[in-house]
């Protein structure tokens, strides 16, 4: 029988596996966040650098992040407010329309965590974390020099999705990759996932994952040839993966 949360509606369809349904309209934001952030994971981390109108550099990590197209190249970030006021990243993006997304390798995890601090707007988190900056090509915010990949972005859309919630959609203007993470000929480079050694966000206040536990599934074709079904093959070494077809 389906169990019910105190704030839930009635049971789900009879005969379905045992579940508990949560009525989000009857729950507060903290309870919804606790469920969603502990379920939708691992999440990639956008380590966002921005500049205030006076030139002060800000750096902060956001795990509500992904890319959403390549023609145009588009990524999006969800920025939640701190109690009482908008976060510096969101305020700077509103003011300037520019930002850089830096990816977080395992070697940079401690430095990334240092930039999570709720510092005043005048504090440069890169300096606070002992990180060197590198100039961007087309936007004012700098890149994090040690990041294995960074994307210079210009705002396409800003969408206020709720109290203190800002969805930032940006076009990627330039990408910077560390030479050590690239393989193959210069005219057709590929990214070595193991060399990136990225971390992702997990559940709770402090849980992360290292993205090296990889397995492969061949995408099926229609009609499927006889005997084509293949089992997943574990790849604990986290080697470079083949590019996924659109829609994966």
Automatic annotation (TrEMBL):
Chain positions covered by the region annotation Disordered: 226-248
Top-level taxon of the source organism: Bacteria
Keyword line: Flavoprotein, FMN, Oxidoreductase
EC numbers, comma separated: 1.5.1.-
The Flavin reductase like domain, residue ranges: 41-184
GO molecular function term, any single one: oxidoreductase activity
SUPFAM superfamilies, sorted: FMN-binding split barrel
Keyword check for Oxidoreductase: yes
SMART domains documented for this protein: Flavin_Reduct
Cofactor names: FMN
Protein family (similarity comment): Belongs to the flavoredoxin family.
Name of protein: Flavin reductase family protein
Taxonomic source organism: Camelimonas abortus
